[in-house]
UniProtKB/TrEMBL annotation:
It comes from the Bacteria. It comes from Neorhizobium galegae bv. officinalis. It is an enzyme of class 1 (oxidoreductase). Residues 48-280 form the FAD-binding PCMH-type domain. This is D-2-hydroxyglutarate dehydrogenase. GO terms for molecular function: (R)-2-hydroxyglutarate dehydrogenase activity; 4 iron, 4 sulfur cluster binding; D-lactate dehydrogenase (cytochrome) activity; D-lactate dehydrogenase (NAD+) activity; FAD binding; metal ion binding. Its cofactor is FAD. Its EC number is 1.1.99.39. In the N-terminal section; belongs to the FAD-binding oxidoreductase/transferase type 4 family.
Length: 1013
């Protein structure tokens, strides 16, 4: 049965015909033709934008063959095809106007691991960190290191011959490829492995495409070996892709993989890869050296590299400054102390490895001796990081450097197009000195970091490519950098491949370029695979792409305009770094992508959809900001007839905004992106603005007004508790709520917080009454500010908070009933949220003005006062409502544990994902609090529980919600319940555990209440 493929007005008849014929051939993968999917796949991490005509997600090598066989039909002779890996390339390698083939969604299985032979066989879509996590218990790893290792696919690594930190020790991807299973354009399925002379002769005698390829490559290697030796520079980052210099291995075998690795999908589609594995180094350390001058650090790197070290990485003052503002900095700041008298303008990170402690200590001693004995080169001091945890924390910061360069204010931002040049390491300092002069003369700022041991430095000039005067600078700077790189004996593409920069290939390969053309013709005679990149057939029918002739992202941004771009929360500034594609289920960002594998449902995907939606509005002359202002001035029922008409009108069926809304509907509004994205793309922020405008044209689902009003209606539900509990707790009631779009609702407890606090004599926090108290008394008052959900459904947590305040010798008060408004914000009721936030902010500010301390309970609701509130016009909340751990960490001296309550039961904490990502010091604060109480605390490494406020209570989301819980929370909860006390800070998290595992996890405040005397 042929699936419904949903072509739209932007789908050509040719592509529609092709995908239907592909389905008829038995293609089992996914086919996406929608404008939304094509928009998301139109960009990567480069400055370019090309919308594909279709995206294919094969399930197996058989599907790849079916793609090739279908394309043999003469009707599709002009339809190009481009393989795509993680989609994070910086040079447009996987961008095409043709058909994209993405193996990451389904072809991501680890097929075989042989620990004896130290070999793994994987499908092309396996992520590097995914493989290494599986290998870790065996003491093995796949060596080439990348900053994008948590989302880079093995197929993509092969396609670009990727490498990064540590390449002088471990080499490039191609150095670890044992075999490649590839599918050619004629449908041939071939395992490419090194061949001895006899095997090579047998293959060359074949009368098919495979024989032709081997004959062509062998002849080139034999006839041009002298010229190849002259042209190819002797670099660690050698001329990758169509690598003529390594066709014959050191053992004499013929290796076609030297040609395939780095070929960027221009020769074949990769189905499977056999990889060489290495033992994991047992001991490691990093020496972190600080410099007053970045050039001094570059000069010093040469001497450091000679000290038998594994690698030397460098970071300049620009990137270092951005790192200090990043989520990971709190955990490593002590390794990079600052002296206000002499600023740190660069660092070198020196890696040392050892098979035993004594070997590592000897290497460290040698480095320290050299640092103390060496001449003064501007070093400001150094620190040493030992052990896996410390080393990994620093490497995580270094990996995030690429993305951090995009985290600046305004439209002028560092962009990638000349960022991975490689020169002999001995030339690097002089080369960079001239590079900096070149950029200074051009009048552009920049950031630098890189692998100085390999002679590679990443440089990103800061441009605004939506400006017509900045666009030509791509050509001017690129040409100048090419000349400079050749002057110093280097290559333009030391790490990130060629892609759109392929126009410089003939210049670097010189008179060997026709050899590349012949190889391309042998593999792909009709120039179907990723045409225009690296090499084109010698007939000249299609020239190589040029860097200033491919559509730039900036041209779309120019249509939108800087003011509108700035008004939608960095959506348009997403640089495609792809940190949100992290495969790791224990990482908070991005839960909806992890659950679906659909890149539309990621921060990057949603940002691209939002950007396209803004472009479409701009082309129609519509200003979304004015739309929003008008909407907030009108009454809720004013546009009802129009919304009904628009919702029923079949002409609106292909409205692009429906596809944007579909992607927004899957967002959990957890704000992990706001904390973890290097560019700080906050999907919940622009999602709410989009939903407000979308539902000014279309009808809302019934659940939306129910959810948005939940904080107001919950107190009323207390008066009809039996009726509510019938609806929430019985099968008939649950069926009724599913009709309204809601599910998994918690039941109301018998205990009432209001009654309990009245019984305890806890006063309500009235600003007027507080102001009358003596200042000394006000300083001792702590106002507990609980959210409506904890107040109504989990009053014991609030009562514990009150008792903790009392046990600490302070005076508790309870904030008056108020509406936080977060649910309104999440669902796009921004007009209501604005008035609600203004009222609540006024109350809280009046409390704070009296000098009392404000402490919230739920992390997500409490953090809303700092994030959602700050972006609302007319709302001024200078007061800080502290999270419990922030307040307790500032009052550790008041924590006096009751010795009789000290228990040996381990304590574990499952933090809320918003708390982990938007208040990164919070977990350390919880640890310090329990340490002060005489207990060790283990922080579980978990992602999102799947409930995320109201998300998991919506019927349409429940399956995704439970899948996320199974991916990240189920095991820690199951492991911990028998042998430890497992705590959770988020109300929604505790509710999810209760619904799925029927367990009642305590809040940390409840455990602290028991531990205090």
């Amino acid at each position: 049965m042929i699936p419904k493929l949903h072509p739209d007005a932007r789908t050509s008849a040719l592509v529609t015909s092709f995908v239907y014929h592909l389905s008829e051939h038995g293609f089992e993968g996914d086919i996406e033709l929608t404008a939304g999917s094509r928009t998301v796949f139109a960009t990567d991490n480069s400055i370019y934008q090309l919308e594909p005509s279709a995206i294919l997600f094969p399930r197996s090598s058989d599907d790849l063959q079916k793609i090739a066989v279908t394309l043999l039909d003469p009707n599709y002779c002009n339809l190009p095809i481009t393989p795509r890996g993680g989609g994070t390339g910086t040079n447009g390698q996987s961008l095409t106007s043709g058909v994209v083939v993405d193996c990451s969604r389904h072809m991501n299985r680890i097929l075989e691991i042989d620990p004896v032979r130290r070999m793994a066989r994987v499908e092309a879509g396996v992520v590097k960190d995914q493989l290494n996590r599986t290998l870790k218990p065996l003491g093995l790893f796949f060596a080439p290191e990348l900053s994008t290792s948590n989302r880079a696919t093995i197929g993509g690594m092969v396609a670009t011959d990727a490498c990064g930190q540590g390449s002088c020790l471990y080499g490039k991807t191609s150095n670890h490829v044992l075999g490649l299973r590839v599918v050619l354009t004629d449908g041939s399925d071939w395992w490419s492995r090194p061949l001895d002379k006899t095997s090579l002769k047998e293959v060359m005698n074949r009368r098919d495409r495979i024989g032709e390829i081997h004959r062509t490559v062998e002849a080139i290697a034999r006839e041009h070996h002298k010229r190849i030796a002259e042209v190819f520079p002797k670099l660690n980052r050698y001329m990758t892709g169509y690598d003529l210099a390594h066709i014959h291995r050191d053992d004499g075998r013929f290796d076609l993989n030297a040609i395939l690795c780095g070929s960027e999908g221009t020769l074949a589609m990769i189905a499977e890869v056999e990889l060489n594995l290495l033992p994991v180094p047992k001991y490691s350390a990093l020496v972190n050296i600080r410099y007053s001058d970045f050039n001094a650090g570059l000069e010093d790197a040469r001497a450091l590299t000679a000290l038998n070290v594994a690698s030397v990485e460098t970071i300049d003052e620009k990137v270092l400054g951005l790192a200090r503002k990043d989520i990971v900095w709190a955990g490593i700041a002590h390794f990079f102390p600052q002296d206000d008298r002499v600023p740190v303008n660069g660092i070198n990170i020196v890696e040392l490895l050892g098979n035993d402690e004594s070997e590592l200590e000897n290497k460290l001693a040698a480095v320290e001796t050299a640092l103390k004995a060496g001449e003064d080169v501007g070093r400001l001091g150094y620190t040493i990081a030992r052990g896996h945890a410390e080393v990994e924390a620093i490497w995580t910061m270094r990996k995030r450097a690429v993305g951090l360069l995009g985290n600046v204010e305004g439209p002028v931002r560092p962009v990638a197009f000349v960022e991975d040049t490689a020169v002999p390491p001995e030339n690097l300092a002089s080369y960079i000195r001239e590079f900096r002069v070149l950029l200074d003369k051009a009048g552009v700022a920049y950031g630098m970091f890189g692998h100085v041991d390999a002679g590679v430095l990443h440089v990103r000039p800061a441009l605004d490519l939506s400006r017509e005067d900045h666009e030509p600078m791509v050509r001017q700077i690129s040409d100048a950098v090419v000349s400079l790189t050749r002057k110093y004996g280097g290559v333009l593409w030391g790490e990130h491949g060629k892609g759109v920069r392929s126009e410089y290939v003939p210049e670097f390969f010189g008179d060997l370029y026709p050899c590349l053309q012949n190889i391309k013709r042998a593999f792909d005679p009709d120039n179907r695979l990723n045409p225009g990149k690296i090499a084109t057939p010698p007939d000249g029918a299609m020239p190589l792409l040029k860097i200033d002739k491919v559509e730039l992202r900036g041209r779309t941004d120019r249509i939108i305009g800087n003011e509108i771009r700035a008004a939608f929360d960095n959506a348009a500034y997403c640089n495609g770094n792809g940190a949100c594609f992290d495969f790791d289920a224990t990482s908070p960002m991005c839960p909806s992508f992890k659950a679906t594998g659909d890149r539309r449902y990621s921060p990057k995907g949603r940002a691209m959809l939002m950007r396209e939606w803004l472009r479409l509005l701009s082309e129609k002359g519509i200003d979304p900001r004015e739309m929003a202002r008008h909407l907030r001035r009108s009454t809720p029922l004013a546009g009802l007839p129009a919304r009904i008409f628009n919702s029923l009108n079949p002409l609106n069926r292909d409205d692009f905004s429906h596809q944007v809304r579909e992607a927004m509907d899957t967002c959990l509004a957890c704000k992990a992106c706001a904390g973890q994205c290097p560019v700080k793309v906050s999907v919940p922020a622009f999602r709410s603005k989009f939903l407000e405008l979308y539902y000014s044209r279309y009808l809302r689902p019934l659940k939306d007004p129910l959810v948005a009003a939940i904080e107001t209606t919950l107190p009323l539900m207390l008066h009809v508790r039996p009726l509510y509990n019938f609806v929430a707790g019985t099968a008939p009631g649950r069926r009724l709520m599913r009709v309204a779009g809601l599910t998994a609702l918690p039941v109301l407890p018998k205990k009432s917080l209001r009654a309990e606090t009245k019984h305890l004599g806890i006063e309500a926090a009235d600003p007027r009454m507080l102001a009358k108290l003596p200042a000394a008394e006000r300083k001792r008052i702590v106002v507990v500010v609980p959210d409506a959900f904890t107040t109504i459904f989990d009053p014991d947590v609030v009562l514990s908070a009150i008792r903790v305040v009392q046990k600490m010798g302070l005076s508790p008060r309870l904030a008056a009933r108020h509406v936080n408004g977060k649910a309104m914000h999440v669902h796009g009721y921004l007009g209501k949220f604005q008035s609600t936030a203004a009222t609540t902010a006024s109350y809280l500010q009046r409390l704070a003005d009296t000098g009392v301390t404000l402490v919230g309970i739920d992390p997500s609701m409490t953090l809303a006062f700092r994030s959602e509130y700050k972006d609302v016009d007319g709302v001024s909340l200078k007061a800080c409502v502290l999270m419990p751990q922030e307040w307790l960490a500032d009052n550790l001296d008041r924590l006096e544990p009751a010795l009789e309550n000290v228990t040996a039961t381990p304590l574990k904490l499952l933090p809320h994902c918003t708390e982990r990502t938007n208040a990164p010091s919070s977990t350390a604060q919880w640890t310090s609090i329990f340490n002060a109480l005489g207990h060790d605390l283990y922080i579980e490494n978990t992602g999102c529980c799947g409930m995320a406020g109201t998300f998991g209570h919506e019927a349409r989301n429940r399956a995704t919600s439970e899948k996320l819980y199974a991916m990240s929370w189920a095991d820690p909860v199951k492991r911990g319940k028998a042998k430890s006390i497992v705590m959770a800070t988020g109300y929604s998290c505790r509710s999810q555990v209760g619904k799925i595992d029927n367990l009642n996890l305590p809040h940390p405040l409840q455990v602290i209440d028991q531990l205090l005397c």
